[in-house]
Every structure is written in structure tokens, then in C-alpha cells.
């Protein structure tokens, strides 16, 4: 929703434009100001997309206002209205991008046409292709960050590798989603002793990642990233024509090349970065679907290496037995925790089912660890949001022996998960209803004041467009329609009191000018305030 500010020192013109545009169904948040100074208050407290302003005004005039607008809100469109043939002002206005000029004598249809044109220009400016063209460098940076985050999710099992082709295309990943990939991990240590800061460690890991990419590229395709532990990880593929032989032949030629290149990389890191790098390398390419388990097996092998591992390149046999426990429950539960905190119910339950079903045959000790790891995820969430009195059976989370089987135990955990998501959803609904109740109460108590969307949004500390959508969602009517209806209802009540003047009633429902109140009332009821008062008076007399 765009916000349009009407500025004119003549109240009748300002109110007339407001009422005319309000009836055009342009989906605009309309605001009005009766001076340049008042307009500045709007511009300093809220985003304004279109300004419809007189050029000649006392104090801050339209041209001064335009300079401030272009400095603070460069996307804002300005439409100037004037009754003067002021050539200099007109010339300056038409030389400024995003500015239109109209004579007041041209009437409302021209004004509406100019506003529609301004809205169209704003829409064009928000088109995705246009934004992409104007932010290519930023986009490239974001792509690198997005690729790193994507591969971290793949490595740690938070993302199922099911839509790789589409994902690789969107993220501009140069690897082939249809072919397996070699995985290599780096373990860095500074030759000069001393505690390194997080920033220094991250900078070192990034430097090693990029250096390895530059030395490996050519014979193979490689993409490097940094895992959640701060270690570099590389994904390596041979050229497509080299993959025509069988796996054994490919491994016999590629693996020695990779080992040799990583030795050169180690030397380069030691000489140029003062870093000792140990490398763990899979002895064969891994299917993308098995990437997470391959990564975990390699990390376990790294923990049991011979000696200190400095400058070592270790090839891990990925086909060796003894990998039943591919991942620790803690690693897997991290992804569950992310989905729970984000409110992603379907993703959570899908991962939960995959996790608990796949671990049923591993053995009691591992299932015990899995049960309590997931229970701790739930307990942390319950404590953080103070839900202990709202989750039935939560006390059993730390007593697995109450269940007859592991199947029953995990079914209980699944029920707890569904309860937590239901509480989250109902809590969001309750808070929405409470916020809108506050807005409605505020409107009822301040009908004689400014009830712009910006002011109401500031009252409950949300952005205006969200409040507008939330109000419509909760009440079934637009916020502006609700305010008009409330003002009409209050005016009708006050008009039954013949001691109040029509002008006084107009002020009490937010209309300083009697002409504006009369137009507003007649548009809503079909009669003027005085006609309504007389009809109400005759009706009450007839009942007597």
C-alpha cells in the first residue's frame, strides 16, 4: 500500500481532494496536512510515496518541500497543484524527475489521472528485474552468502537434497546436481601460538577456502564454503567427460591429483598465511543425497587421526563398515530446533518422522540419547516461552521409562511437538486480536483527532501496512471504512442533542470545517446533518 500526502493551506481544497481520492478505490493510505510545516512532520515520521501539494504556501512552500522530499525519500513522486501561472516554479518542477504539474482549474479527473500515473511509476520501480539490474554487485555478494548457507544446511542435514537442480540454478552453483561430488575438509591452526579472535579465524578460513579454489580449478570444478564449526569445506567434481569411466577408474586418477594439489595448498598456506592446514578427503565421490552422512563420517575420522595431523592429507574410506551411527542425535536435533523456533510445522514433523523412524533399529543406548536430546529441545522451547502450564504431560519429557516401547516414547514426543505448534498459532491469533482491540478502543476515544494509519500504527508499534492488513483480517472491514462508520455513528448520536451545533459535532468527530463534515455525512447517509437531526426530532416526537 502506497502512502499519499495531500498538502494545501486551504482546508477546503485539502479536504475535498482527500474525500475525492478516498472514493476512488486506489488502495492508498491517505494523509493530509494544512501547511508545509505540518507536511514536514509527516515526512519525518513515516515513509511517503506520493505528495500532492500546492506550490505557493506561507512558510515552507511547495518547492522547498520538494527539495526536502527528494533528499529524504528519493523514490517519492510529487504532484504540484497551483492556481498561479508561475513560470519559474513550473519550469523547475518539470525539470525534476518524478514531478508532475497541474493547474487547480483542471479539476479532479486530472488529479486522479496524475495519481494513477504516479502509482504506476512506483510499481515499475519495484519490479524485480529493475531492482536486480540496479544492484548486480549486491546480488553477487548475496549469492555467495546464500550458497554458503545452503551448503551448511546440506552438510548438517537441515535441508533434504531433493530439489538440487532447481536450487543450484537459482543460486548459480556451478556444480552438477546430477553427479556425485568429492568432499574435502580443512582443519586450520596458526603456526604462531596465541589465541585468535573469531574474526581472525573466519578471515583465515575464508582465505584458505579461496586459495584452494584457485589452485584446484582447471582440472576439476570446485566450490568452497565454511561449515558451522568455522572450518573450510570443498565440493569437487571432475569434468563431465572424465566421468564416463567407472568409479574405480575415476578414483584412481582423481584422488592422487587431489592429494597432490592439497599438499601444494598446504605449502602455500604455510608460506603465505602462516597457517598449518590438515585435510580430510573422501576417497570416492559421494551422492548428494548422502552428503550429510559423508561429512559426518569424515569428521569422525578426523577426530581419530594419527599424530597431531599437521600438514596431513588423509583419505577416508567412505565404504568402510562401522558407520551405523552416521550422525549424533545432537547434530540432527539442531535442525529440529531451527524449524521449531521458526514455526515451520510441516518441515519439523517431516524431519522428526525421518529421524525417529530411521533410528529405531540402532539400539537402546542410541535411542535413549535421541529421546533425551529431542526432549531437551522441547524443554528449552517451553521454558523460553513459559509454556509449562499449557503443555499437558510435559513433566514426562525426562522420564522415558514411563513408556512401554520406543515407538510409544517417540509418539509422545510427536504429540508434544504438535501441541507446541498449536500453542504458537493460537498465541499469534490472540495477540493479533488484542492488538486490534486496542486500536478499536483508541479510535473510539479519539474520533476528534487524527486517526491516520501512521498514527494508529505508531500507537501499537507496528508498521502501517501490517496494521492495515491485520485489521482487515481480524475485523473483516478496511480500517478506513471502520473509522468512517465509527464517526458516522458518533455523529448520529450527537445530532440527537439539539443543544449542540452542527459545527461543534463535526469537530467532535474529526472535522474542523463544517463544509467537510457536511459532505462526509451526506455521502455516508444520503442526507445532511441538519436534515438527519430534523428527521430524528420528528421521529421522537411521533413516538411520544
TrEMBL record:
Modified residues (4-aspartylphosphate): 54
Keyword list, A-Z: DNA-binding, Phosphoprotein, Transcription, Transcription regulation
Pfam families xrefs: HTH_18 (PF12833), Response_reg (PF00072)
PROSITE patterns attached to this UniProt entry: HTH_ARAC_FAMILY_1, HTH_ARAC_FAMILY_2, RESPONSE_REGULATORY
Signal sequence annotation: none
InterPro entries in the cross-refs: CheY-like_superfamily, Homeodomain-like_sf, HTH_AraC, HTH_AraC-typ_CS, Sig_transdc_resp-reg_receiver, Tscrpt_reg_AraC-type_HTH
Keyword Transcription regulation annotated: yes
Domain HTH araC/xylS-type: 437-535
Residues of the Response regulatory domain: 3-119
Protein known as: Response regulator
Source domain of life: Bacteria
Organism whose genome encodes this protein: Paenibacillus artemisiicola
Amino acid at each position: 500500500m502506497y502512502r499519499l500526502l495531500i498538502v494545501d493551506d486551504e482546508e477546503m481544497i485539502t479536504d475535498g481532494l482527500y474525500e475525492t481520492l478516498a472514493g476512488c478505490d486506489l488502495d492508498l493510505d491517505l494523509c493530509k496536512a494544512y501547511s508545509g510545516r505540518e507536511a514536514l512532520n509527516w515526512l519525518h515520521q513515516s515513509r511517503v510515496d506520493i505528495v500532492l501539494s500546492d506550490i505557493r504556501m506561507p512558510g515552507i512552500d511547495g518547492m522547498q518541500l520538494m527539495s526536502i522530499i527528494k533528499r529524504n525519500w528519493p523514490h517519492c513522486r510529487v504532484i504540484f497543484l497551483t492556481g498561479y501561472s508561475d513560470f519559474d516554479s513550473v519550469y523547475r518542477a518539470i525539470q525534476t524527475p518524478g514531478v508532475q504539474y497541474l493547474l487547480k482549474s483542471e479539476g479532479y479527473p486530472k488529479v486522479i489521472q496524475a495519481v494513477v500515473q504516479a502509482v504506476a511509476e512506483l510499481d515499475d520501480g519495484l519490479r524485480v528485474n529493475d531492482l536486480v539490474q540496479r544492484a548486480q554487485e549486491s546480488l553477487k555478494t548475496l549469492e555467495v552468502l546464500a550458497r554458503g548457507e545452503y551448503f551448511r544446511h546440506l552438510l548438517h542435514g537441515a535441508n533434504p537434497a531433493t530439489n538440487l537442480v532447481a536450487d543450484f540454478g537459482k543460486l548459480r552453483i556451478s556444480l552438477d546436481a546430477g553427479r556425485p561430488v568429492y568432499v574435502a575438509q580443512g582443519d586450520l591452526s596458526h603456526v604462531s601460538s596465541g589465541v585468535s579472535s573469531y574474526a581472525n579465524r573466519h578471515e583465515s578460513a575464508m582465505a584458505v577456502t579461496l586459495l584452494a579454489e584457485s589452485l584446484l580449478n582447471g582440472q576439476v570444478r570446485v566450490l568452497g564454503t565454511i561449515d558451522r564449526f568455522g572450518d573450510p569445506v570443498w565440493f569437487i567434481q571432475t569434468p563431465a567427460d572424465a566421468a564416463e569411466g567407472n568409479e574405480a577408474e575415476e578414483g584412481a586418477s582423481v584422488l592422487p591429483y587431489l592429494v597432490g594439489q592439497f599438499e601444494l595448498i598446504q605449502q602455500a598456506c604455510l608460506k603465505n598465511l602462516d597457517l598449518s592446514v590438515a585435510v580430510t578427503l573422501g576417497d570416492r565421490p559421494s551422492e548428494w543425497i548422502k552428503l550429510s552422512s559423508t561429512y559426518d563420517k569424515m569428521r569422525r575420522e578426523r577426530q581419530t587421526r594419527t599424530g597431531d595431523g599437521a600438514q596431513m592429507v588423509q583419505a577416508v574410506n567412505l565404504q568402510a563398515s562401522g558407520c551405523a551411527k552416521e550422525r549424533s542425535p545432537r547434530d540432527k536435533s539442531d535442525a529440529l530446533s531451527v524449524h521449531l523456533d521458526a514455526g515451520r510445522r510441516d518441515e519439523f514433523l517431516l524431519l522428526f518422522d525421518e529421524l525417529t523412524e530411521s533410528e529405531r533399529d540402532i539400539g537402546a543406548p542410541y535411542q535413549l540419547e535421541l529421546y533425551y536430546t529431542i526432549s531437551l529441545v522441547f524443554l528449552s522451547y517451553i521454558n523460553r516461552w513459559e509454556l509449562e502450564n499449557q503443555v499437558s504431560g510435559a513433566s514426562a519429557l525426562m522420564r522415558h521409562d514411563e513408556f512401554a516401547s520406543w515407538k510409544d516414547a517417540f509418539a509422545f514426543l510427536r504429540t508434544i511437538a504438535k501441541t507446541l505448534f498449536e500453542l504458537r498459532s493460537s498465541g499469534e491469533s490472540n495477540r493479533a486480536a488484542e492488538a486490534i482491540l486496542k486500536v478499536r478502543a483508541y479510535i473510539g476515544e479519539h474520533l476528534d483527532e487524527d486517526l491516520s494509519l501512521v498514527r494508529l500504527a505508531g500507537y501499537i508499534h507496528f508498521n502501517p501496512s501490517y496494521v492495515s492488513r491485520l485489521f482487515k483480517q481480524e475485523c473483516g472491514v478496511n480500517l478506513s471504512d471502520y473509522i468512517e462508520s465509527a464517526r458516522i455513528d458518533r455523529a448520529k448520536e450527537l445530532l440527537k442533542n439539539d443543544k449542540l451545533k452542527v459545527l461543534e459535532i463535526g469537530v467532535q468527530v474529526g472535522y474542523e470545517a463544517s463544509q467537510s463534515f457536511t459532505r462526509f455525512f451526506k455521502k455516508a447517509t444520503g442526507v445532511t446533518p441538519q436534515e438527519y437531526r430534523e428527521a430524528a426530532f420528528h421521529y421522537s416526537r411521533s413516538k411520544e
